Amino acid sequence: MSDSWEIFARTLGTESEALRLLGERAQALSKALVHLDAEQISVAQRELDEAREAFSRAASERRAMQVRGFGTMTLRQVCSYAPPALAWEMNQRLAELMTSSIGVTITNNNNKALIAGGMDRLVKTTLAMQRAASEPSTYRRRGFVAPPSNSVLVSSKA
User: Fold this and answer.
1) What's the domain range around 38?
2) How far is the CA of 31 from the CAs of 25, 27, 68, 86, 139, in angstroms?
3) 134: burial class by Cβ within 10 Å (0-12, 13-18, 19+)?
4) Would residue 139 count as lying in a domain?
5) 2 versus 126: which is more confidently predicted?
6) Considering the domain boundaries, does residue 93 fall inside one?
7) What is the rounded average pLDDT of the residues 55-82?
8) CA 62 to CA 69: how far, in whole Å?
9) Do 48 and 29 touch, CB atoms closer than 8 A?
10) What is the tally of structural domains in the chain?
11) For the whole model, what pTM was predicted?
């Protein structure tokens, strides 16, 4: 396989684009989680997984080229060593990779928090419904009514 600076720069650009797309897909999942739409969440999760696989392939290809050509040099060192005609573009892609990876990390942590919060609310709602169902109801003129302490409405602060 013939590796050249141009091919390496193009591969670095592909990796940067794949990471940008991954960030967009992670943002779409965040919006779906906020709107609580199960179908939208499912579609966003599937698209996120596809984007994650595409980024993984692009990053693996770039890393393989980097190891073949530069051994243990870091990507920053490789970009500094690039020919003057490609140095600006490669350093730009490196900066894009760094900022995009930070954004994706923040978005993924936000998504994890949204999912954990949803699971916590689900557990609290289920416990409140079980508690309301297990305690005896009192008869009122219009039928059986659960005691006021057994409300199944759960606030977000519960």
Assistant:
1) 5-107
2) 10, 6, 41, 38, 44
3) exposed
4) no
5) 126
6) yes
7) 94
8) 11
9) yes
10) 1
11) 0.75
